[in-house]
Amino acid sequence: LGLTLGWARDRAYPCIDPVFYQWMRSMLGVFGFLGVIMYNTYFSDWPFRKVLLLGQFVYFASNMMDWVWVSRTNLELGLNDRLFLFGSDAIQPLLKKLHLMPVYVLAARLCPENVEATLFALLMGLSNFGSILGLYHGVALLAMFGGVDKPEYRHLPAFVFVRTIIYLAPMALVLIFVPHGSPNDSFDPDTGELIPASASKKAGDEPSKAASFTSSKSLDEEKDPSGRGDIELPTLPPQ
Question: How many CB atoms lie within 10 A of CB 159?
């Protein structure tokens, strides 16, 4: 390992032990599972837009850690390289689950009957298409910068910085395509919109009040069919 990474150590580049790196990679599933637990515990009642915007911003901040790492700013701050590798491998799988869970819940709310499998396949296809498209865009961005080759990696900090800034772009798409509402809202199939839980609850209370009024009125009519109530008519004295 020392002979292999000698050129990196001479340039003060990150030198991560492969055993430590593989241990971190093996923990990705655990961090993803923690992301599911965190969403169900703290974010399941949040509006769709709010949780997606928060997740995307934290994802942007976690990728900014890569820029601090490759620019070697962490050495000036006295921070070890392993800390940044741990943060990147731990936070990103967790945030990925926080991104996917609201999408699955929203799809379940809006999905018509008998097309659940088709909708799930469509979501997975779009997710894979977006991942592959992102890889091609990354290759094109590398070609634009150039000079991101070992052993110097001259333009690597600039490349990572631009890549991180691009992570802010999906936040605008969330405001455009993600509807208002939360997982607690109900779906109206006639209008295709989400009905807030408070409004649906209020609408559910009104028929019950009307029903109780109708039932009480019918009981009164059964007691007094004439509708005159308990009013007694005056009687004439006997002659």
Answer: 21
Work out the pLDDT band at 41, boundaries 50, 70, 90.
confident
Instruction: Estimate to the nearest angstrom the gap between the alpha carbon of 78 and the chain centroid.
Output: 34
Query: What is the tens place of the pLDDT at every residue in 66-122?
Result: 888 888 888 888 887 777 776 666 777 787 787 788 888 888 877 888 888 898 898
pLDDT number for residue 89: 67
Tokens of 219: 């009981």
How far is residue 59's CA from residue 164's CA, in Å, rounded to a whole number?
9
Long-range contact list for 181-189, CB < 8 A, 24+ apart?
Answer: 181/47, 181/48, 181/106, 181/109, 182/45, 182/46, 182/47, 182/48, 183/44, 183/45, 183/48, 183/102, 183/105, 183/106, 183/109, 184/45, 185/109, 187/109, 187/110, 189/112
What's the whole-number mean pLDDT along residues 4-26? 70
As a whole number of angstroms, the distance between CA 158 and CA 13 comes to 16
Three-state secondary structure along the chain? CCCCCHHHHHCCCCCCCHHHHHHHHHCHHHHHHHHHHHHHHHHCCCCHHHHHHHHHHHHHHHHHHHHHHHCCHHHHCCCCHHHHHHHHHHHHHHHHHHHHHHHHHHHHHHCCCCCHHHHHHHHHHHHHHHHHHHHHHHHHHHHHHCCCCCCCCCCHHHHHHHHHHHCCHHHHHHHHHCCCCCCCCEEECCCCEEECHHHHHHHHHHHHHHHHHHHHHHHHHHHCCCCCCCCCCCCCCCC
